[in-house]
Write a structure and sequence with these properties.
Blueprint lengths: L1 E5 L4 H12 L3 E5 L16 E4 L13 H21 L4 E5 L12 E2 L10 H15 L7 E7 L1 E3 L6 H10 L13 E5 H13 L6 E5 L4 E2 L1 H11 L11 H11 L8 H8 L3 E2 L2 H7 L8 H12 L1
Parallel strand pairs: 1-2, 1-3, 3-4, 4-6, 5-11, 6-9, 7-8
Antiparallel strand pairs: 8-10
Helix pairs in contact: 2-3, 4-6, 6-10, 7-8
Length: 299
């Protein structure tokens, strides 16, 4: 088995590179920033894992056109080269945000996409193009929709929460009750390798998520416990927090509406399809174990 990665300098890409190398799986990199990236495609590869893309910018400072140029157009370009190659599998790492920005109930692969942000729309348009193509015999297409990925070396909103707790700042959003799905980088690597190795796995869309869900308050408690601190949860009225976030949409405050939504919304993602397809009952790393590993890496 040989795997080629795009986006190998990002958190997921670099983690996958280390994972495959540790398991003695031949792995090489396609740099989409190189104008000659086409020449880097190796026909002897088993799979292309396309991770390169523009992440969601919570500060809303990026132009919509940039999302579509990177997330949609570059994906189409490399997929078209894959179609003409001798490589068997193409993995496109999309996002659950390509479906909906806010999930009601449990999100599975059958939900019709209706994203509101340029990020989500660009991902969904890339998905739509790939799914509309006729695959040559023997080739497989997998669209992966991961929820929030975390692990050692990750940067993002989880680190922001960690810093708040570490500084002893009370968590003022305890009034917001939510349940969220997370994805340990260990489970992501495990699932991807298992998919490549399963020869009879059907092409299609697959959600990636840990088996368990946790609330943001659970995270604050878990971080506090790991740091040897008492969890400081403040139940500030939600209407007051929402008002402050709206002000942050105009002024450069640490909290704006987009960041508030990411920190407090419920977003439960089903992983039943991928587990059933791979014939596994549970993932190797449970949600708390994975989050604890991430927290300890920040110490």
């Amino acid at each position: 088995m040989m795997v080629q990665l795009t986006g190998a300098t990002g958190f997921v890409g670099s983690s996958l590179l280390k994972y495959f190398q540790a398991r003695l799986v031949k792995c090489s990199v396609i740099s989409m920033r190189d104008e000659n990236w086409i020449t880097q495609i190796d026909n002897s590869a088993t799979a292309i894992v396309h991770l390169a893309g523009k992440a969601h910018d919570t500060s809303n400072s990026s132009s919509p056109a940039e999302y579509f140029r990177i997330n949609r157009d570059l994906t189409i370009a490399i997929f078209n080269k894959f179609i003409k190659s001798e490589i068997r599998d193409f993995f496109y790492f999309s996002s659950v945000k390509a479906v909906v920005d806010s999930a009601e109930g449990i999100l599975d692969e059958t939900v019709t996409g209706d994203p509101k942000t340029p990020y989500g729309k660009s991902k969904l348009e890339a998905e739509a193009y790939l799914l509309d193509q006729v695959l040559p015999k023997g080739k497989r297409l997998f669209i992966i929709r991961p929820c929030m990925v975390h692990g050692p070396g990750n940067k993002g909103n989880f680190n922001l929460l960690y810093k708040v707790v570490k500084k002893g700042i009370p968590w003022p959003l305890a009034a917001f009750s939510n349940q969220r799905s997370f994805l340990s980088i260990d489970n992501l690597c495990y699932l991807l390798e298992a998919m490549i190795q399963k020869d009879n796995l059907q092409s299609g869309i697959y959600n990636f998520a840990d088996d368990e869900v946790l609330s943001t308050n659970d995270l604050v408690i878990l971080i506090s416990k790991t740091l040897g601190k008492k969890a400081r949860l403040w139940n500030v009225p939600s209407f007051l927090i929402t008002t402050i976030a709206k002000v942050g949409d105009i002024l450069p405050l640490p909290l704006n509406s987009e960041r508030l939504k990411k920190l407090t919304e419920s977003y439960i993602v089903s992983n039943l399809k991928i587990k059933k397809s791979l014939e596994i009952e549970k993932l190797p790393t449970n949600a708390r174990e994975g989050l604890l590993r991430t927290i300890k890496s920040l110490l």
